[in-house]
Fold:
Amino acid sequence: MSSLLEVDGLHVWFEPPHGPPVHAVQGVSFELEPGERFGLVGESGCGKTTTVLALMGLLPPNASLAGQVRINGTNILARGEDSVRPYRWKDIAMVFQGAMNALNPVKKVGWQIAEPMTFHGIAEGNAALKRAGELLELVGIPARSAERFPHEFSGGMRQRASIAMALACEPKILLADEPTTALDVMVQAQILELLTKLSDELGLAIVLVTHDLPVVAQVCGRAAVMYAGEIAETGPMEALYHAPQHPYTRLLFAATPDLYGEDAVTSIPGSPPRLDRQFAGCPFRPRCDVPMDRCAHDHPDLLQLGGGHLAACHRAGAPSERLAEAK
Amino acid sequence: MSDTQAFVPPASGSPMPGPGQAPATADAPARAQADAVRTAESATGAPLLEVRDLVTHYPVRRAMTAALARRPRRFVHAVDGVSFSLGRGEMMALVGESGCGKTSTVQTILGMVKPTGGAVRLNGTDLAALSERQMRPMRRKVQMIYQDPYESLDPRFRVRQTVEEPMLVHGIGKSAHERRELAIKALEQSGLTPADAFLDRYPHELSGGQRQRVAIAAALVLGPDLLLADEPVSMLDVSVRAGVLSLLDNLRKTADMGILMITHDLSTAAHFADRIAVMYLGRIVEQGTASAVVRDPQHPYTKALLSVVPKRDPRDRSVPQILTGETPDPVDVPSGCRFHPRCPIAVDRCRTDDPAFRQPAASSAGHRAACHLA
Structure:
């Protein structure tokens, strides 16, 4: 039995006009069941957004892909971007970062929500506009607002409208790329509550891309921590927070202030490696606080730790005294 | 312009004129006066920054017909009676949603916007009463760090130029060599070491955290008493935020500065600020030490804000108390308590009486809230 979404060994390379190709995503695999909420976290430039854009077939022309993305067992990347198009919006939809830029400023909001329905032959004309109104109601905006333009909406309303647009063709999978980053805490809470409700009630599977670990901790059941285009650690959220096996996961949590946390907040020295060159060994080694000799030349593969918990660290599974101490 | 006043780097204390150096420039008397005022005031114990009943209103543009019909002018009540004070070496966080007046408050303190009413006193001097010329030396004392270091740095300026420009504007440093030395000192103070390696770089060659440190160095080079930081880390990567915040935390101690930080992130405020002031619709609705506000909130708005902050621990999923709707239009401020239309516990009295800003019975000293029911 195949899962709703299976990403299997996804690679993405970008060919810049000058210089060597950038290996932005390096063998990412994860799967998703209906109604599940999965977080994709990491610093900027670690490949989170590139991964979800690849799933939507929205990468720029200078990108090349390898690996499989299967929806209910069918590989949608089989013939490159062309084979994604029938699935885009219909099976897999996306809410973009910065909703203000995702909406067309000169088209009424209702029309923009109706457009993908027309394209996929789900509804046309007035029926599509009526459905757009219903979708706006679903995300908590009065249906009559369909007649308004994006600039008449507040930031939170625009983000809701772009969620309504993504839901237009009743997708099974929703990719949400930093959906709350530009929003206030109260509006963020409203949007997160809406996403949670949609997955609980409609069985929508959600991939939540964010750099904000507490948001993922509160919303998602499972998550993957990405570093340098790879998954460094993945598993149930509880395991990632309470028993992280990759130093990067532990350090990311330590860099995030908690409202009631007493422990010092510490930054992670250094910056992620450039992805336009091959590196030997573990990509996190230069920033790791517990490196070993073998990390310099031996690339760690994702190791099964049971219960869906995997980590790409030579220390994973057998926590050293120092790692335990650091916790 | 030539200025003979010695520049004393921020770390080494107050920038008083060096011995044997006659003030020779036009604004030197003003500066000497300002310094004299400051010395007098610090002796009397006036706080570094004192904001009293600050009001900033912006007129709403009227349609021509409205103007002809002589309909009354309407105003955006951006800041509507804000009072607080900030001491040296202290960090205070101003938190609240967009449009609550945080940024207008800071812009008024900076003198970018003229206050409609109230006073902003820096070391006891009322800034609104100063002329442009008298204001100039004061501006040096109040510096600003902006949210987005990708926008706030001139992309065609090398780091050296960015850090030296404020010195040229304010006539600090006698020679190019001296300015270079001061720039290096400020960069190293901001954690960019060795500074030599950064001087000739352009912003695009730096990471977000490094850019924000350059912006901080450009502020430090003037030896400010007060640093205003508008969301200083919200555009930065999680991994470097703590570093920039710790830098600010250290600077206020080593450089004896007061820091007023605007943020919407209560977790950051709780960790790094000494005191928190929560703003809603142009007013401070609750103020106190960071731990008192976070652990013992008195105002229902503060309680709601705290409840929606996501916690790091996935097991710690408290039920968020989500307020419906958004902040009301600051042109039509609600009657009585301005929070009552969204307040979950509002009673009749809240619709008519504006609550006083007072210390709730069971709270610690200095903890105040504007709520009838606190």
About this structure: Chain A has a mean pLDDT of 90.
